């Protein structure tokens, strides 16, 4: 075994190929004999055998640079070890195994990599002796061994996709062969997941390879766990981005004015937004990491859709969302994975998500915090998702209004109580009005839906003693009333009291007594790199055709003074929300400011708007300089 084996590499005639196979067999036999001779007390091993053994270890050792001849010799040795795995024993071949499990496949040539991964899959199947070590070694290779300045080494970039594919194939082969492998792999991945302060390149590479395992072959075994770990990481990064990291220069902007929608940052191009809220994201690395991971997850979901696997993946994702994201009131971006997944299947997943959220809102069995979050989600989702049909919007609104009417009927014998006892009712009324601010005009284009909408009990609710118009956000109330009046939505009711109330409300800034501030989870997406997945299906306010737009094309100026939701950010740190579980589930004593993540900045001492989009810096200083906002 030596140079005589190498000179046959690349030979093509029959005689030389035959010699090559003879040499291969001789090498295999030699390696097997050495391994067998080492299976005894070290003191009894022949010194020459010991020398041959350590020569084997040295040949596959990766710590020293190897010539082309050395590489060919390593290839032959690895092949021989693959054929002799039954002879390898942890008690007598510790040095050999330690060297094998410390190899980084990122440094191996393609053919050598294939042979080495074959050795690993064979070792994993040997009576489960080395299963954990083999799985751990493969997981360790999800990322390159060296990452400098938060970037993959240039030589690793073109190899990443191929290496990830081969790692996933090896893990799938082991899982098919060894029944215990999937369960053990779940545990290893859980322990090896990137931490919050790991660099972006490591996070992205690890998650990208990990999601490659979520396929038809392994999805049923570990797919749900893998996706749950990714969402957990996204959420952890998300809540680490504080509102103090997002600096606003134009903070007194109404809820319908605050969208800055310029994608390319070209000042010469038309900007869709009505007001450019300047956003500087002060070098927050969590946002940059989250942005990169959102790209990876979106690409994974797109791949699932292309393979016809999305419905099953969506079901898993919805369960994870319910458990890990729904109740996270400070989440800013992680929830958009649901938005994107639904956009990939607007006929099935799109409506399914809306129904799922509505079910949570209307069921008394659900916990109060989940119901409040769900109503925020469903209102924001129906308003912003361009792929949701008007039929679905009307159907959901009908259910929400039906629940509101039932709630009001239930309150007749109980009398009115403090506003804080009716949080879900007010939040639902606000969500309905918010949706109609965006969707009323499009619904009116369909006569059957218009008739259905006009039959809904708006008059009953708006004139009810609970007075939702006085509690919901003024900007939403005013915009809703303006469009509803223009569409003659209230003319369907003969109650003159209602019409008088509407006229009165439109004549002044209404709403805001014990004001209800709410979380709008699908406000404009702020992360630049992953924005391309959300933008094509996202409804910006400037795109909305209101009912009055034909009458007044210059209506934008009338919205400039609208208030936007604000709250005391300090209240977000208090997780001890006191709820009297002995009361009616619909009568909640939840502090009103618990239901919004829109912060109150003590520096401004007034309401501030959500920012538009975070744009990473493109300056020479890289991560050490503050990001800039393209205008």
Kindly describe this structure.
The protein is mostly helical. It has helices at about 5, 15-35, 45-60, 70-85, 95-100, 110-125, 130-140, 160-175, 180-190, 200-210, 220-240, 285-305, 310-325, 335-345, 350-360, 370-385, 390-410, 425-445, 445-455, 460, 475-485, 495-505, 530-535, and strands at about 245-250, 280, 600, 605. The strands form 2 sheets. Strands 1-2 form a two-stranded antiparallel sheet. Strand 3 (about 600) and strand 4 form a beta hairpin. Helix 4 packs parallel to helix 6, helix 9 packs parallel to helix 11 and helix 13 packs antiparallel against helix 14. The model is unreliable at about 1-20, about 245-250, about 260-280, about 505-510, about 555-585 and about 585-630 (pLDDT under 50).
Number of strands: 4
Q: Structural class of the helix and strand makeup?
A: mainly alpha
**Can you give the helix content as a percent range?**
40-55%
Order of H and E elements:
HHHHHHHHHHHEEHHHHHHHHHHHHEE
Flag low-confidence runs.
Answer: 1-22, 247-252, 260-280, 506-512, 554-585, 587-631
The shape is elongated
Oligomer: single chain
